[in-house]
Amino acid sequence: MNTAYRYFGDIKQNHLLAALPQADADRWRGQLEPVELTRSQVLCAAGSVPEYVYFPITGIASLVYLTQEGASAEVAVVGNDGMVGVSLLLGGGSAPSEAVVQSSGLALRLSASFLRSEMDRSGAIAKVMLRYAQAVLGQVAQTAVCNRYHSIEQQLCRRLLLGLDRSYSDEIEMTHELAANLLGVRREGITIAAHKLQEAGLIRYHRGHIVVLDRPRLEKQTCECYAVAKKEYRRLLPMALAA
């Protein structure tokens, strides 16, 4: 489905772009290219240097680590809160994780070379981008703690809330198999957890789609990791940052 009609030419539909100083945002408008993201599309392979960075509007991507045996686990979620290509912000060049689209939708694409030159040119841009990089590192750390100490049901609630925050509806594209791969757990564990949530009236799932019916109760059901990471993002990236 074509989602370009949801863009309307307003780059501030992406919260990270909205945090840029107005003069810098105006300069970026001619460089940002609307692109469609398709489910399972790899935006950046692990170990590669990204040619572009992506600022999702309606699409959602996962940063995923892969083992030599082929297992995988999601370490961060990127939607309209940020950008894909955070490794460029830290000067490391190549990305340690794979960035793959989990929910199709629209994004704004920017050349990596332009972003690097803009960070050298503007201290205000560098400040915003490095704060975002810190927020992503915080999400990665919180995910590691969550995966180690909290139940599969709590992890699933957290992941659904992360997707919901970056979605324009209460419905999330996610099969049990995908959820298991993202969380690095067995599919049977996801099936049991999802069944409990559905029986409790928190969600409804059917053929790869999960509808959140009661968000307040879902937030109570999850662990503290969701709120901690969200609070840190808001601390680092309020809607308007001083230069």
Keywords:
Env_Response_Regulators; globular; 3-stranded antiparallel beta sheet; Jelly Rolls; disordered N terminus; Arc Repressor Mutant, subunit A; alpha+beta; 2 domains; 4-stranded antiparallel beta sheet; 243 residues; 42% helix
Write a structural description.
This protein has helices spanning 15-18, 22-28, 112-121, 123-149, 152-165, 176-183, 187-199, 215-221, 225-236; strands at residues 33-37, 42-44, 52-56, 60-66, 72-78, 98-103, 105-111, 171-173, 203-206, 209-212. By secondary structure, the protein is of the alpha+beta class. It has 2 domains: 4-147 and 229-236, Jelly Rolls (Sandwich); 151-222, Orthogonal Bundle (Arc Repressor Mutant, subunit A), CATH 1.10.10. The strands form 3 sheets. It has a 4-stranded antiparallel beta sheet. It has a 3-stranded antiparallel beta sheet with strand order 1-7-3. Strands 8-10-9 form a 3-stranded antiparallel beta sheet. A hairpin with a 2-residue loop joins strand 9 and strand 10 (209-212). The longest helix has 27 residues, at 123-149. The N and C termini lie far apart (39 Å).
Structural class: alpha+beta
How many β-strand runs? 10
Largest sheet: 4 strands, antiparallel
Helix and strand run: HHEEEEEEEHHHEHHEEHH
| Total separate domains | 2
Contiguous low-pLDDT stretches (5 residues minimum) are: 1-5
CATH class type of the largest domain: Mainly Beta
Helix content: 40-55%
Shape: globular
Number of helices: 9
Radius of gyration: 18 Å
Mean pLDDT: 91
CATH homologous superfamily title of the largest domain: Jelly Rolls
Strand arrangement, largest sheet?
2-6-4-5
CATH topology of the largest domain: Jelly Rolls
Q: In CATH terms, what is the architecture of the largest domain? A: Sandwich
- Percent range for β-strand residues: 15-25%
Distance between the termini: 39 Å
Keywords: DNA-binding, Transcription, Transcription regulation
Organism: Rhodoferax saidenbachensis
Domain HTH crp-type: 150-216
Protein name: CRP-like cAMP-binding protein
